[in-house]
Each structure stands twice: as structure tokens, then as C-alpha cells.
Amino acid sequence: MQQSRSQLSLAPSSIAQSVSAHSTDQLASHAYWLFKKDVEHFSIESLEERGRKREVLWTGVRDSTDAANAKAIRCEDPILLCTTGADAVISGILEATSDPIPDATAWDAQFSRRHWVTPPDKLDPGCSIGYNPYWAVRVQLVATFERAISLRALSEHPAWQGADVWDVDRMLIPVSEEQWDVVIDMAADMRSAPSAHV
């Protein structure tokens, strides 16, 4: 398996270590993901303000397909952070620091008001402590791109054409290793070319 030339500097620590050790088995054990949030509710800056090692609980996933994906995430899986708004951009890399846990913001209003990642309007009246089909995962920020990569720029690459990321209702999306490498390489190219703009 050929590795992206920039993975060592931009990928999460667990992935970088396995690349340096040439352990394709360890790399293959990880799934790649893209998490989306509205920039008004969540941003790379909000994570940086809390410190690069500060863990946050990623909550509020309510789409049934996304909820199934959330349940499949495992600790140390690498994640692309995409914020939506006037322009949807990928601005950095997160890493899952836990396996999935039940998402209490689906039924606990007080927890939802205290929890900064998910606004209180994500309560589901059908949920309770005894029944909750939604999942959350702890994540931490491990890398920030010097320049954010717009989804419009990604749409020009064949690997990203037809991807689920273009569905505005989807917020937690699996990505292929090829799609991951495209983003990492674009981030490295932008870092080495100050005049470039994406």
C-alpha cells in the first residue's frame, strides 16, 4: 500500500507511527472519516481555544445512516474536520480517542445545554436513558491545515466525485484511503506554495 508523501507530518500520531514503521497491517485496521458541523456551532478555532490535546465529545448525530457510522468508529480512527456555512471547508484532522458511547444530548436537556458541541434543538422526544439509538465519540485535534481546503476544490478530483460528502444532510461520513490521501496531499501542496489559494 503506497502512502501519501505527507502523511508523516499531517496524519494523527497513531497513523504516523505505523507509516514510519511500515506497518500496513496497523494502517489497515483504521477507518477514515469526515465529520461535518455548522461553523456557527463548531470550528477548528473553538478546538484550538481549548488546547490541541483537549478532548471533546462529538454529539448531535441524528441521521440514521450517520448514527450507524458513529457506532462503527473506533478509538484512534483519523477524522477530517469539515465546517459548513457560506463555504464548506476541511480545516484539520481529529482523532477518535474513544469507542462510541450513547449520546445523552438526544434525551437529556440539561446535558445538552451544558454541552457546547450540540445545540439543544437536537433533543429527540422518542429517546430516553433506556432507549437511545444515537452515538457520540470523543475526539481531539491533532493537526490544523495552514489553509482550509474547500469542498468545491475537492469536487475537481475524481476520487471525491459522487462522494456522500455532497449530501447536505450527512454529517458523519466514511472516506476511502484514496480520498484521505487526496486531502493530505492538497494540504501539503498549499503549505509549500504560499501564493496558492483554494
For the record, the CATH class is Alpha Beta
Tell me what portion of residues adopts beta-strand conformation: 15-25%
What is the CA-atom radius of gyration, in angstroms? 17 Å
* Count of beta strands: 7
Q: What is the count of helical runs?
A: 8
Based on helices, strands and strand pairing, what is the structural class? Answer: alpha+beta
CATH architecture: Roll
CATH topology: ph1033 like fold
Order of helices and strands: HHHEHEHEEEHEHEH
- Tell me the overall shape: globular
Sheet bearing the most strands, described?
A: 7 strands, mixed
**If you average the pLDDT, what whole number results?**
78
The CATH superfamily is known as ph1033 like domains
| Alpha carbon gap, first and last residue | 28 Å
Domain EVE: 31-186
Pfam families: EVE
Protein name: G2866 protein
Detailed description of the structure:
This protein is α+β, with helices and mostly antiparallel strands. The protein has one domain: ph1033 like domains (ph1033 like fold), CATH 3.10.590.10. It is built from 8 helices and 7 strands, in the order αααβαβαβββαβαβα. The protein has helices at 7-10, 13-20, 24-28, 44-49, 64-72, 109-114, 151-154, 177-192; strands at 32-38, 55-58, 78-84, 89-96, 101-102, 135-150, 172-175. Strands 1, 2, 3, 4, 5, 6 and 7 form a 7-stranded mixed beta sheet that branches. The radius of gyration is 17 Å and the shape is globular. The two termini are 28 Å apart.
